[in-house]
Design goal:
alpha+beta; Thrombin, subunit H; 6-stranded antiparallel beta sheet; 18% helix
Length: 111
């Protein structure tokens, strides 16, 4: 197999499964209350409730078995929203009550 064909095959594979790695994230913030999320019509339906999460990392560092140290991080629930529009099999639109700030790349899961 020549190098160009191999590279093309790798690119097709990576692009076809890229959405799998984004599943359950905020893809695009539309305004303070609306966003497009990576949960599509195979995952949610109109009116479904979803929860939003963000990583909260402390300034406290914890040791590791390897002798290094890392910040301690936890997922923190920041709010809820409702599915208002199904865009396709990968994305849907969600609206929140506006009590928190939506951030692109934040995490979301169906209730």
């Amino acid at each position: 197999m020549n190098k160009n064909l191999l590279m093309l095959a790798i690119l097709v594979f990576l692009s076809s499964c890229a959405h799998t790695f984004m599943r359950g994230t905020v893809a695009m913030k539309l305004d303070d209350k609306k966003a497009h999320i990576c949960l599509g019509n195979n995952d949610v339906k109109l009116g479904d409730k979803v929860e939003f999460f963000q990583n909260q990392c402390s300034d406290i560092r914890i040791g590791t078995k390897e002798g290094g140290d890392i910040k301690e991080c936890r997922l923190q629930k920041v709010g809820q929203g409702n599915i208002t529009k199904l865009l396709n099999s990968h994305y849907s639109e969600v609206e929140t009550d506006g009590t928190f700030k939506i951030k692109e790349g934040g995490l979301v899961q169906k209730l």
